[in-house]
Structures are given as structure tokens and as C-alpha cells.
Amino acid sequence: MPDVPYEESEEMIQAAKPYGVTIISLIAPTSKQRIQMIAQGAEGFIYCVSSLGTTGVRKELGADIKGLVRAIKEKANVPVAVGFGIGRPD
Question: Is pTM, for the whole model, over 0.90?
């Protein structure tokens, strides 16, 4: 279930646990004030959204993606994966 806000994810997390399913947390560039809260409860890995908008319609990543990843890693005990989208078939 993608894009479930952290504040609304507890019911889904509890339903998935008995089946060994880990719900992956997302952190977007707009989540800066929520990084610590989201990172502390993250399991598996954190999916870092690299830029806002529709997937694949840009030619480069967000302006300060390195800073965002650094801020997440400072708070997280799991790996961080950066999602960048696919813009063209090639």
C-alpha cells in the first residue's frame, strides 16, 4: 500500500506483522520535520522520494537529495533507498 501517511499506518503495520510482511516507510522532500518520527519506526528500509510530482517527467533529481538522504541516515537504523523514477524506455 504505497503512500500511506505515517500517522495512518499503524493499523496496516499490525495487520501485516503476523504474515512476516514489512511495511516500507516513505520520506519525501516535504517530510523534513517528520524525518525523526518516521525513521525511528522504520523497518526493512526507508524509501526516499527524490522529487515531487509525477514519476519520470524530470531529467534530474531534486535539488538537495544528498542532504535529505544524509538527514534520514542520521536518524534511521535501516538502509535508505532513493527512488528516482523512469522517464524513458531507454
Answer: no
